[in-house]
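Curious: can you check?
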Amino acid sequence: MAMSMQLRMMDTDDIPDGMRLKEFAGWNQTPADWERFLLASPLGCFVAEWEGRVVGSVTTVVYEDRFAWIGMLLVDPAYRGRGLGTQLLEKAIEYLDSIGVPTLKLDATSQGRAIYEKLGFVAEYEIERWILQREPASLTSLPPTTLPDFDKIVALDREVFGADRTELLRSIHLDAPDFTLAVKLHGELAGYALGRGGTRADHLGPWVAWDEPTAWELLDEFLHRSARETIFVDVLKNNSVAVGLLQSRDFKLSRPLTRMYRGPNAHPGDPELVCAILGPEFG
């Protein structure tokens, strides 16, 4: 196998192969998402080649030297069972260790959790993907409106997420400004949300709120602004308010994820305020 398989850094020419791999998995990423990975970590995204064919991928994003995110661990179904996924994961870990990142994080599927545990990852909390399927006649997409104060959003997001991710959120905001939402209470920001369009659905996240009315307002406004039949939300399982709101809007539970970390986890943020994460590939 060593003679046939090669691990190397990913570049923009590999994006079509990345899209092919994510289609096998039924994921929602776009070419713009792959570009975000490569822009954020040009030396930290990798592909596996088998006899010259790209058959696997993994990405990393480092947030403010506090922790790094590992995502997009994908293997072509025809090449699974050969240890490629583990080798890609180990390559990402080796790279992040080499640049001195103290903490590594990821969102694990139930199938992958055991592999991550063997490599020193431990569970932090549970996440669930919820999906809404709507009839086209029910859609009520709204025209552009005045944008909220983006600087205040990213400042609060740093506290909630645990590290600065301004450039990533700015990129998502510029691609879908109508999905950037904020609610103020007594002149102060009480919650915010962003969203992005994927190949399969519009994705709400991050979705952050200080109270239930704010969470409700953000969710309903996002649903009004999206023109897609399918909506994805990756909600924190222990946030009963967010889960209840999704159920009230006819979302259905799709699959569980486990947020895991390796290292000290010195910057956990404030997950109690998080209704939904940005996404398993970004954190």
Q: What stands out?
A: The chain has two domains: 5-102, 128-276. The mean pLDDT is 94.
